[in-house]
């Protein structure tokens, strides 16, 4: 489990394909605190650390993960949001995040609004994921509040701290992002659709 509060940015050093899997090597300031078998959220994707060397560590994504996330768009040099799993007893500063990406979305608006930033994202509504105004959403692993919700798009507002300490500052029109919809909303939606 995660909270959606980003700890650090990592930089992709190498991406290596191995059959249906992809091994991703990342440089990060938190590498020396990681352990093999530890879960870390990478742009909201829960991946397991499989090796560590100096300030580099490697995670592996399987075919199913690659299909549902934006990993196929990653390139060496890209900056990714990192968060280690939450500890029991810690404050839950964001919201309950599983690290299980529901689908990919696209940035359709990115603009500075007199000290903060407004982003609008589009997603495939046929997959039955929903947002609600003032509800929670995770974008590339960042816990956010929905400002405006429509059938296949939603908007969020970003404070300067979030802009500077996440990869939101690299978003432009067309950027593919990972979306994890609110887990409580998913259960309610599923119960409602089964009636």
Describe the structure.
There is one protein chain. This protein has 195 residues and is mainly beta. It is 12% helix and 43% strand. The strands form 2 sheets. Strands 1-2-5-4-3-6 form a 6-stranded antiparallel barrel. Strands 7-8-11-10-9-12 form a 6-stranded antiparallel barrel. The protein is globular and about 45 Å long.
SSE string, helix = H, strand = E? EEEEEHEEEEEEHEH
**Contiguous runs where pLDDT drops below 50 for at least 5 residues:** none
Kindly report how far apart the N and C termini lie.
30 Å
The biggest beta sheet, please? 6 strands, antiparallel, barrel
Q: Identify the strand order in the major beta sheet.
A: 1-2-5-4-3-6
The Rg value, from CA coordinates, equals 16 Å
Q: How many DSSP H or I helices?
A: 3
How many beta-strand runs? 12
- Helicity range of the residues? 10-25%
Structural class based on helices, strands and sheet pairing? mainly beta
Overall geometry comes to globular
Mean pLDDT: 93
Q: Beta fraction of the residues?
A: 35-45%
